[in-house]
Amino acid sequence: MTGASFILAINLFIAALFALAFFLVGVSNRTDRAAPCFALAYVCGMAYIASEFVLPLQDIPQFAYTAGFASFLGAVTAVSCGVSRRYGQPLNWPAIGLFFAAATAANWFGYLLPHDTVPRNLIYQAPYAVMQAWAAWSIVASRRRQSIDIGLIALFALSAVQFLTKPFAAILLGGSGDSSSTYLATTYALYSQSLGAMLQVATGLLMLTLLVRDMLVAVTERSETDPLSAIFNRRGFEERAAPSMQHSSLPAALILADLDAFKSINDGYGHDTGDQVIIAFARLLRETAPNKAIVARLGGEEFAVFLPESNLGSARLLAEAIRTTFSSLQIPGLPVFVRVTASFGVAERMGTENLSDLRRRADAALYGAKRAGRDRVVGAMMPDADTMPAHPLSGTSLARSA
């Protein structure tokens, strides 16, 4: 067995491992549309490697040569499609199909050219380079710039360059053989297959890392998102709001909101209607708050909007806009004459105040809004004057009857 044949056997084993790995990732996460493409790519790669062994034994080598080319082109095309899907880029299937057919036809007729020449080798290698360049461009166009994204851009660009330089490397290394049967014995074959093995492993590992990273991000987002309201839960809110206060001396404001008489809605119209109230209020918060705001459902009927780089005045204006809009909404499941209201407490960060202190003062303001009759916005007092008021129902006839 020649050195190139040994590398080919290793490549076949590596391709099988990566095909299995991406298949398992796809099975474990059926919403992932990229993993099946990557698994298909390595299956096509296995077919290409097999064709390299079979090609010298064929009576009609032109057919085996073209089939091997189509298999490897299918592999790099599947990789590019998977990358485009992962990075949210559109796929033009007619253009992809036309390119694939044209490249395969060109190699069918290119086989008739002298075996060890630059034109024939360029016809063979250029389509691979185009597909690798497309994969790199898909990542660039997505504008994602984390370390793994930059690494993949560099890897696909390097792969495209090495495909284009292979015809010239063949000349420098003494040629690619005068026939398919002598190819595996050449120094160029050892160089080509060794470089291919390294790029195959590097690409596979980075793409697996990419999928695992995105799966972890999705799991984290689910753990930090309230499933009913589709906004952050308490954990997600604190994970984002607290660091922004620790590393910034800029002003910030916090709005706390509580739906008025929410228990009576659940008791009188059912929990499904109560859920609709939660969904409607969360949607209003999300659509009204600025892009930099952190919107969350802290629990039950309590919500928060953290406003970086905002003061008390702008926070109160936002809270008033939300309050008046919400009180006029028609909620599904409620009679047309029934309107739901909310109370708001607003506080501005004072000095180096942390999130816990800011929230305590906003909470005190919220209780003040409840005590004052609900459906209103109350601003927090200064920290040295801040005291938590009594329960909003204390002293009322409702509290006494309870």
Q: How would you describe this protein?
A:
The protein has helices at 3-28, 35-54, 61-86, 93-110, 118-142, 147-172, 180-183, 187-223, 234-246, 262-269, 271-288, 312-327, 355-371, 397-401; strands at 252-259, 294-299, 302-308, 342-348, 377-379. It has 402 residues and is of the alpha+beta class. It has two domains: 3-223, Rhopdopsin 7-helix transmembrane proteins (Up-down Bundle), CATH 1.20.1070; 234-401, Reverse transcriptase/Diguanylate cyclase domain (Alpha-Beta Plaits), CATH 3.30.70. Mean pLDDT is 86; it is low at 385-402.
Portion of residues in beta strands equals 5-15%
What count of helical segments does DSSP give? 14
Number of domains: 2
Distance between the termini: 90 Å
* Structural classification: alpha+beta
Low-confidence stretches: 385-402
Looking at the structure, the CATH topology of the largest domain is Rhopdopsin 7-helix transmembrane proteins
Total number of strands: 5
Order of helices and strands: HHHHHHHHHEHHEEHEHEH
Helix-residue proportion: 55-70%
CATH architecture of the largest domain: Up-down Bundle
Which CATH class of the largest domain? Mainly Alpha
Largest beta-sheet details: 5 strands, mixed
Average pLDDT works out at 86
Strand order of the largest sheet: 2-3-1-4-5
| Principal-axes shape call | elongated
Q: What is the CA-atom radius of gyration, in angstroms?
A: 32 Å
